[in-house]
Amino acid sequence: MNKILLLVAFVTVLFATGCATTAPNPNRLSDFHAAQPRSILVVPVVNESTDVQAPTSVLATLPFRLAEMGYYVYPVNTVKTLLELEGFYEPAEIHAQPPESLAKLFEADSILYVTIHDWTARYLVLSTTTQVDFEYRLVNADGAELWSARKMLQYTPGNNNTGNPLADLIAAAVTAALERAAPNYLPLTRQAHNEVFHGFNVGLPPGPYSPAYAEYYQRLNAEPGR
Fold first, then answer.
1. How far apart are CA 213 and CA 194, in angstroms?
2. What are the boundaries of each domain within the chain?
3. 35-68 pLDDT, tens per residue?
4. How far, in whole angstroms, is CA 50 from its chain's centroid?
5. What pLDDT is attached to residue 185?
6. H/E run at residue 121
7. Widest CA span of the chain, in angstroms?
8. Is 222 exposed, middle or buried (0-12, 13-18, 19+ CB in 10 A)?
9. 205 three-class SS
């Protein structure tokens, strides 16, 4: 009987702990709300993977998501060119610069730093798993962190079961080879951006050029204790 009671208590504590980890954090965006940035400077991406095309794919898909949310996003190609004119060619060097100087250079309200931790396609003969791992960090013009997120996603193509083991085996090998030859990076990258910018208890508020901006902050200011 005592063992049963201990087991019930353990499960109860485990469940309560699990619930606590998923509860919303009302103060998560307090610094962001105070700053209310209107413009976002997206600096060149730090790439820790071996694929030299990874930063290009990330930057090709990221500004649209932020602009869609109502923020002014500086054109990434123009940003890269101006930074190079200032003598900054390496993304890691740019990330190491004082945010105040970068923001002043472009008169930006905030700066978004993105790091690619993983961008790989793992081939295992009958399956290929494509994986991306991105870290995002948004700071104010004075260097104070306003928001951060990290997202890892995987994609493994599935195969239809035809009932013919040999045909299924060949189909799986062909599908894996095709994914290895042309990994499904772009859809994963778009999905990662979408989930971090719009996800529950993770995402960003609407920007000042969004129709939802005024209503969002009216609701926020109407909350008790504000």
1. 18
2. 27-220
3. 999 999 999 999 999 989 899 999 999 999 999 9
4. 19
5. 81
6. strand 110-123
7. 75
8. exposed
9. coil
Q: Which residue has the higher pLDDT, 226 or 9?
A: 226
d(CA 72, CA 84) in angstroms, rounded, equals 22
5 pLDDT exceeds 80?
A: no
More confident of the two residues 128 and 104: 104
Nearest C-alpha neighbor of 130 from the set 174, 188, 178: 188
Assign domain 27-220 to its CATH architecture.
3-Layer(aba) Sandwich (3.40)
Closest CA to 25 of 205, 219, 201: 201
Comparing CA positions, the residue from 182, 184, 171 lying closest to residue 126 is 171
**CB neighbours (10 Å) of residue 173?**
14
Give the Cα separation of 35 and 43 in Å (integer): 20
SS3 54: helix
Q: Are the beta carbons of 112 and 95 closer than 8 angstroms?
A: no
Which of helix, strand or coil describes residue 40?
strand
- The tokens for 33 are 């709300």
Tens of pLDDT, residue by residue over 169-188, are 444 444 444 444 444 688 88
